[in-house]
Write a structure and sequence with these properties.
Distance between the termini: 74 Å
Number of strands: 49
Largest sheet: 6 strands, mixed
CATH superfamily of the largest domain: Transferase(Phosphotransferase) domain 1
Radius of gyration: 31 Å
Helix content: 10-25%
Shape: flat
Strand content: 25-35%
Amino acid sequence: MDNFHKYLLLGVLFSILSTTTVQVTLTADQVIRDGDTLVSDDQMYELGFFSPGTSTNRYLGIWYTNISPQTVVWVANRETPITDSSGVFRLDTNGFLLVIAASNNTIVWSSINDLVSVTTFIPEAELLNSGNLVVREMGRENFIWQSFDYLGDTFLPGMKLGKDFVSGRDWRLTSWKNVNDPSSGRYIMFLDTQGFPQIFEERGSISILRFGPWNGERFSGLPIHTLNSINTHEFVYDDKEAFYRTTLVNKSVRSPVKLLPDGTWLRYNWNEPTQEWSIYWKAYTDMCSNYGLCGKYGKCDPYSSPVLCSCMEGFEPQNLNEWNASVWSGGCRRKTPLKCPNGDGFQVFKNVKMPDARWSLYNRSMTLDDCAAACTRNCSCTAYTNIDIRTGNGCLMWFNDLVDVRTVDESQDLYVRLALSDITTVTESTSKSSSNNKRERIIVMLSISSSLGIVILILALFYIRIKKKKQLAKTSDERVQISVDEEYYMESKDDDTELSSFSLSKISKATNYFADDMKLGEGGFGPVYKGVLDDGREIAVKRLSKTSSQGIVEFKNEVKFIAKLQHRNLVKLLGYCIQGDGSMLVYEYMPNESLEKFIFDQTRSSKLNWSDRFHIIHGIARGLLYLHQDSRFKIVHRDLKASNILLDAEMNPRISDFGLARMFKEHENQANTNNIVGTLGYISPEYAVLGTFSEKSDVFSFGVLVLEIVSGKKNRGFTREKESNNLLALAWRLYQEGKAVELVSADMLDSCVVSEVVRTIHIGLLCVQNYASDRPTMSSVHLMFDQNGALPPPKQPAFFGISSLPIIQPISINDVTLTSLEPR
């Protein structure tokens, strides 16, 4: 150790230390010891030593006061933890901040290399109301050092995301390694200044997410980035720096942006009445958020699932076979080679995210007409747009293949260079040549008249068809089916759902006429078959059985709900078929079938390591959070179980089977019923006994699922030792004995992260507590998984013993999907 560091440590050891204190400022040679805190003047933020999650390591950090679980927003010694409680935080007479492990006289972090040299001054450190820890000369406002220059995983209002071209400082976010370890993780979020600045997220050196460039109001493609009552947005780009920053309108609001260990980028708002964090927006909204999913000149549309990608007009797939197999990375090529400068033109594309602008040039003073002329003259220019959509001015030109284009609800137009023949093909019906204006008006009027006539004819035929069906109906079941068809038709119009109505002949052909070798399984609704449409798409067809306990009401319910839901962790409904005496739902095909077939199968279970199971748990949590909070309607699923979690080709979980789901009105939190439905082992106690259900009923089912995924054992019918007659009882007993890790499935003992497993079991037990009011919301559960704060102790779970189960009378024909319980 050099003499300088020895001098600093001696200063610490001979400082006058107090007992636990709360301070507002820190002057030279004052210290904050482990147990002491430094608070902001408005007491919104607090600085001190903490241990993340289940770790015993100690870190100096800043967190929100009076919020549980603890929400840390900045860490000093994130790469060098202290292993005991001897930590000391000190401001020395030179203005240096030091974090010291006093037990071995080691400086684990300092601001020495970051400070501007100042000859003579009296330093002072303060935690500002913004959450910014600053060092300044006493009595002056200019900062000598500030924590806002050294971002962690949290982007607070007032921070900059970008670059200082003078000092070379790079303001970027870096995720934690995991909830128990704040050291640098795999993901970074930064402002890329190659070309016109835009925001990127990378995993390692691989780009996985992009927003931008800035269009005067927002980064192109960034969700919920409009004027609001919470914060304002600012983008600065000049010779000295380029950065993006938000500013709070209401200073009392807590609204951080976090880059989570799994790469998720979220903005949270603190809800004071409920004392919970709520998700304001997510950067990753759908599959089209993946960077460059459709390759060069490909365009992604999340509403065209499962075929997300199409070639931009004037382009065709580079490899048609790969494209038809949904391998889109090869992208697209021009249909017609360019013949610059006289054989080319520009096609306008509306409502698209601007392409990757790293290989672009820009000029802020040019008009859009000047931009068009400049791009036309340069044969290497592939596209152009205006920079500021508010004024229409500025020029941004691309000189590379266009990558990462998707549909968005934005007003910036993109002009892409095409051969004139391709532009004619695309736009001949909308040409605005003055010599053709009169002819076009006539064509438009005739088209409108013809269209109206066709619509009227279709409606008349539809009315005659429905009336004829009603007259010929001989059974109540047939009348119900017609009624459902009518009602669903009207609801689809009202709710803007876009579902295909498949014919029975088309479905029969796709499933080889419902051959046994195409049958995937059978539930309470009826059998499920695999099918292949004429265009090569694989589908799953759920066919309503005549003897099914779930009838036309459940069929209609499922169509109505899933048609309104769009989320990557919910199964995608493609369409329906109501023809003759058959009612069918057509879904996207999930090649790995259900979660049940993995976790409860001795052979297939070994294929799921801890990382896979943790990923599946997270996906289910995200899907439930969407249903309860983020969708257009608040929906309670009521039949969440392993067999209703489907797995796609990449083992991403999809919640399915919405036949029993219930939509809640705004401000409605629970409901009662005498017809209790669901599956034994997953039903919450208040629902089974009292007929009361709410989103907390789904939370209970989720908790059961978590424990089943971790253990590989079913809750229902579980037998082990005398004192543990179901899975919940076993998990509770092991938790109380400090042996929770023994619940882990033997298949993943070698792959599991013990701290994550124990925390996951803890969260599962919180979800299955006896009283609904004790259980967390899915919003809180999501934060528990992604943050590192201490968890509240769980109370004894529901259905601890078999004797506490209510009387059950199964009404499902296969005793699996649907049960009716008689409340006591």
